Amino acid sequence: MIANEHLTRVLPLRVAYDYTRDKWWVYTLGNSKVGPRLLKGINQPNIEDWGPFSLEHDARKLEVQLTKHIEKDWPKKKPKRGRK
Fold first, then answer.
1. Of 27, 42, 52, 54, which has the fewest CB atoms closer than 10 Å, so is most exposed?
2. Residue 1 falls inside a structural domain
3. Per residue in 5-22, pLDDT tens?
4. Percent of the chain predicted with pLDDT > 70
5. DSSP per residue over 43-77, as a string?
6. Alpha carbons 82 and 53: distance in angstroms, whole number
7. How far apart are CA 84 and CA 53, in angstroms?
8. Are 24 and 55 in contact (CB under 8 A)?
């Protein structure tokens, strides 16, 4: 995996409403619900609630917080060195 290739599998995050549970969730690009596995790197934000949320505003707030963390603080992978 080349540097930041993992971002294309996670971002952009999206907020969606679950009508069966009457709650809001935050999903990754791969359609997975967000969770602590997205906290990587040294400067991890303190997230107390991962959802579901009663208010869309709370889900959007988590979406913005995670997007900033992933874009800025996720560890960067070094590209593999090929033979010449």
1. 42
2. no
3. 555 678 999 999 999 999
4. 83
5. S-------S-BSSHHHHHHHHHHHHHHHHHHSPPP
6. 47
7. 53
8. yes
**64 lies in some domain:** yes
Residue 33 lies in a domain: yes
Domain that holds residue 48: 7-73
Give CA–CA dist 58/12, Å, rounded: 17
Tell whether the model's pLDDT for residue 2 goes beyond 60: no
**Nearest one of 84, 83, 76 to 1, comparing CA atoms:** 76
Using only the alpha carbons of the chain, give its radius of gyration: 15
Q: In this structure, is residue 53 part of a structural domain?
A: yes
Q: Dihedral of the CA atoms 44, 62, 13, 31 (nearest 10)?
A: 100
Distance CA 38, CA 23 (A): 21
What total of structural domains would you count in the chain?
1
pTM confidence score: 0.80
